[in-house]
Fold this protein.
Amino acid sequence: MSAALAAKYGIKNVDLIRTEAFVNGKWINGDSKFTVDNPATSELIAEVVDTPVALIENEAIPAAVTAFNSFKKTTGRYRSGLLTRMYELMMENLDDLAILITIENGKSLADAAGEVKYAASFYQWFAEEAPRIYGDTIPSANGSNRIITVKQPIGVVGILTPWNFPSAMITRKLGAALAAGCTAVIKPAAETPLSALALGYIAELAGVPAGVVNLVPVSQEPTKVVGKLFCESPSIRKISFTGSTGVGKLLMQQSASSLKKLSFELGGNAPFIVFDDADIDAAVDGAIACKLRQSGQTCVCANRIYVHSKVYDEFSTKLVAKVRDNLTLGNGLHKGITHGPLIHGRAVAKVQQHVEDAVAKGAKILHGGKTAPHLGENFHEITVVGDVTHDMLVSREETFGPLAPLIKFDTEDEAIALANSTEFGLAGYFYTRDYARLFRVGEALHVGMAGANTGAISEAAMPFGGVGHSGFGREGSKYGVEDYIVIKTIVIGGI
């Protein structure tokens, strides 16, 4: 099947196509399989092994425990070398990895290539951080004592990732874990396991020791069972999860019995504010980049676009024109396509529900508004809706689709109050040329990340994470390793 799949989609390195579990340095097949479909065409891409829960519990987790006993003793410089090699291998196979993302996720090939570069950058970043994980010497109140701290890896990490960034959501977590000296058991999303398994092959090729990285794909049905196993296993000392707030709450409850360290990147409902002194052309570009990236299926994309009433007409006219003239919906593998399908029919239905609810309550469709069955069952038109009010679903719920709702406001205080009128706090964006306002609003937004005069904030150097119901912990940046270490204090007396 791998050779046929490579030939069909032009993948040069057929070894990247893996459909087995990767446990203790070995590729393990099985009788039970689940299918992976191309959301653009609904065609079968591959059949992937449905890893038995017993294998995860009795082989994958114990393998990670055994590997940790030796891997934790390796030097930061050694782990840096592994991560550097993994970065290099990802970049060498960029085109093939991008194709894998596009055919199982649906995003355009250009967008997928951007994700591969973004994903690889975390290996590069944490390769540079690995040799620099060190503690402190603390003066003691007792003159004959000395206090020193050392940072040690927490242990085996359970990694649970979503489908919307099938490479980057793994590397952002795994890069930090390996830099710290942890081992990992990774359950990728059922919709997008091929990209994850390709990363397993890259880890193997880079010389990562057996048992340090384990990948266990499972279908939707046993996903809850595996999540519960990760949370309750005394051998797994930390869970890193990206997904919905509801699932995050459940995992937190299930982890209580084992008192795990947790880092959760959960749901978002990002505001995007355009003040009357903003550069409108820049704000339009930022809104398109932020709201419509991957057809709106990102956790940090703008969900509510607040536009000052003085510039509302100019902004809405320019936004619609740019969407109409510059964006093309279709199969992400085809030339000239900028935006692909949604991941499945449920996502399409939610977008349509939000559009219909808004129109029923008085909103106006400025562009799009319908599904696009002529392109495929998972396509929805890129849609801009004006005159949106706060009682509409799109103002309260995360759409996770190509729907840009425009909401008028009149004052800075009103905009901040509206932006903060949600339990979520992942990201927020605003455009202004007033530098005093830049600081006021940036500090007032109840979010973990704020973009001022930019719609693109994510990079390896930035601490990524939210507040409130958007979770806790930070990924990437110099802080990214902190969630994978414990601080040990050693007090030396009798000096």
In short: The chain has 15 helices and 22 strands. The mean pLDDT is 96. The radius of gyration is 23 Å.
